[in-house]
Amino acid sequence: MIILKGGVCVTPEGLVRADVAIDGDKIARVAPEGVVPGEGDEVRDVSGCWVFPGFIDGHTHMQCWTGMDWTADSFETGTRAAVCGGTTTIVDYATADRGVTLPEALDEWHRRADGTCAGNYAFHMAVTEWNDRNRADLRAMRDAGVTSFKTYLAYDHLRLTDAETLEIMEALRDLDGVLCVHCENGDVVNALQRRVLEQGITGPEGHPLSRPAEAEADAVSRLLYLAHLAGDAKVNVVHLSSAMGLEAVRAAKARGQENIFVETCPQYLTLDDTRYLEQGEDGFAGAKYVMSPPLRKPSDVRALRGALLGGEIDTVATDHCSFNLHGQKDRGRGAFTKIPNGGPGVEHRPVVMATTFEGELGPEDLCRLMSENPAKLFGMWPEKGRLAAGADADVCVWDPSARWTIEAATQHQAVDYTPWEGFEAHGRAKLVYVNGVLAAEDGEPTGAVAGRYVPRH
Ligand SMILES: [Zn+2]
Questions:
Q1: Which of 31, 298, 340, 373 has the CB geometry, 3.0–4.6 Å to 323, for a possible disulfide?
Q2: 2-52+384-445 adopts what CATH topology?
Q3: How much distance in Å is there from the Cα of 61 to the middle of ligand 1?
Q4: CA–CA separation, 355 and 51 (whole Å)
């Protein structure tokens, strides 16, 4: 057994000073009275540390073609970076492009991920066309452990119509599935992209002008009315970025909808749209922040932080979708619409959250937002998201006293920048176990490839 001795454990019952015993791939005991080591047991002193159930990132895009380019991170590099930061499970978006069936897409994502992952992985399934075949295959997906789906209200090659969005929500309601939705009004974005380019604004600063908060709020509002029409269908508004979008969520909750879940991401809680003016060495550094939805105004950041502290946000995920600035994003030099959308974050989410909300969110809050709630929403509870006897031995031992600086030069994400370059980090994942195997120590990978596919229920 592995015995983690003397830490403060973040358990469903609250903070408990206890020893944790790991036996194989399960947690054997969380023992306030202590565990007496037997012969052959490995003891690690974790006094001064918080012991979390491994963090879960419910929104990543590894090793995929997004319409403009392949992402920089593979499942191998992405999950390795994740475990270095304390994240032991990702839920990645498999995507069935038009003409591809859902089972074919799931097979393809397994081909990409299986056998290469340092951390655990599960798949959502993005549905980009609505037809009888895909409708019939939802049940097969559920039987294969895929209980959450995604649709888009923007991007012409991905989006469904409003009527199709309604129908898939109704179909998923019968299967007790959850629909995650990218909320932006695609028609408005298309028109504003043309208008901004015609005005001669071609650099990264054109990106937020073409995707205003109103386009998000309209789509959030429309989605939540459709969910109401579908009998209060279970929906997860992903990467909420704006105060206006938040108002739309509040309106739906005020009319009694209870099956609404809200995700936001560290970038929308810490960065604002002044970043698009960043020049860097070659005048194009603003492209680092070209992601959709875009970074917003400081007032939006304040509103989302308040909502998070007020308990209105259920999960914090990354939307990790990395592209190199040099060789990928800079191909959009002539037009911001050609910059691949997305940014890295899977490695740094726990520390950015712990640091930026230091004194405001305690370890139990961090656990709820980044482990427990995603486990519950996505059908992994109580095996994951819970530090308790019988749960999976995915464990993150966190040293809150560690001090270090986030830098692209030392990160493990396979990309040439980080949006948090120079960020003074408070805390660090000291020991990270995946299925009982030490996957990372003091922010460095051990080389273990212990990740498994997580079929969900
Ligand atoms: Zn995404």
A1: 340
A2: Urease, subunit C; domain 1 (2.30.40)
A3: 6
A4: 17
